[in-house]
Amino acid sequence: MHTPKNIIHLIIILVSLSVTLFLITPLSLGVTRDWKMEITGNTKTQIRYIRSLVEKCILDQAADVVQDVDLKRLQECLINSRLFSEVDVELDDGILRVHVKDRWSIIPIPFVSSGKDQDTTAGFHVYESNLLGYGKTLGIGSTYSESGASYSVMYHDRSLFWSDWSVGLAFSRSQDQIYHYMGEDKMDGMDESVRYYSLSGGYRFHPKFQASLRYRNLDRDYEVFEGYQRPEDYRSDYLELRFRWDDSNYRFYFQEGMSANLTMARQIGRSDDDENRETKTVEMDFGWQRPIIHDHIFQFRVQAGRIYHEDRRETLRVGGRSGFRGIQGQGAWTKQHIAGSLDYQIPLHRSSKGTWTVAPFVDAGRLILITSQDDQVDYYACGVGTYYFLQRIALPGLGLAMGHNSKYQDFFFQFTIGFSM
Questions:
Q1: Domain 105-417 is in which class?
Q2: CA dist., res. 237 & res. 267, Å (int)
Q3: 31-102 against 105-417: fold identical
Q4: Which residues pair with 173 in a beta bridge?
Q5: Up-side HSE of residue 70: CA atoms within 13 Å toward CB?
Q6: Residue-wise pLDDT tens digits, 100-151
Q7: What pairs with residue 146 in β-bridges?
């Protein structure tokens, strides 16, 4: 297994490689077609990068000449990059004229989250989603609560060397006191410190399909906590294969269409060298969103997961998010789960700064918990949420959800500033 010193060296190497790849990417920019194009309106995104996006969008349509381009599909494709708040496209005398309005890409995000049976968490994140105008993402952030703290750094290049390859790098460190609930009863708990890093690479095989492979390492340390049995300190390595199908279009406060993810992970090393305990996980996520009446949005989502050779340290922790609302945050430690959610998003007010929505919701699911009897819990939850979506940065600025869960929190609420719930 890796020693802490070797891990630091590996992180330095990976960061250096990632920065090098970013710096040399502009040198590899190329034009694949001799299309006549005029690009205006950009204040940060580089002309060469916008041109490459346009070319990819056109090639995805299998258009050989600019006159064959479906301008509406091209406009949607550029909006889906999430770099622009407005895109206008027109064809004039064989010249493709593209006018864009850049979003704010350096996004400072204060974060506050509070709810029933959870500590108030506060922090600050900074994301640059268009690094030097070439569409790369760099993020750094930290959060604090009474029970712990965390910080993280990430970098993602979604178009390595102007190709269909992507690379990503992430590092985080956290310390938290967590509980395992069955209903409102605490079944287990631990004081856990985690050091995490990962390196990933992916390829876009089709405009709607991509696959990626990720290596990740976790180093966990534990302290004595409230009389619960203290787990042994633990280090592990994983390989994770992910497939994603995305047939949706970005619509500011929702994604119109269908998307699906399948993730399979296998533990390839652990500090106790017990090969018979190497865990495997399979997780699935399917979503479908569609306008029903005017700009009212029907949102449907199904999530499922299964872990093999689990123990207290290796579980699928769920709770607090869509499909699991009314379950304490990461408070259900499962070996298997399936959950569905239905939301009906209704815009209440629009302005130049953003849109305020209200969304009644229903969640339902089945959990197989990590207990001596593999207890099964069937639950449902219903309630209403309200969210404010900021126009220029494409993130909910404020959210409040409240409702009833049949087996966990009888009445729950969750308030968040900075991210959606």
A1: mainly beta
A2: 6
A3: no
A4: 151, 195
A5: 9
A6: 998 877 776 776 666 566 667 777 778 888 888 998 999 998 888 777 888 8
A7: none
Cβ neighbours of residue 361 closer than 8 Å, sequence gap 6 or more: 322, 325, 341, 342, 343, 344, 381, 382, 383, 384, 385, 401, 403
Q: Which residues of the chain have pLDDT under 50?
A: 1-6, 25-32, 420-421
φ, ψ (nearest 5 deg) of residue 12: -60, -45
Single pTM value for the model:
0.84
Name the token pair of 196. Answer: 């995490």
The residues with which 90 forms a beta bridge, in sequence order, are 97
- Structural domain spans, the chain: 31-102, 105-417
Structure token digits, residue 7: 């891990």
CATH number of 31-102: 3.10.20.310
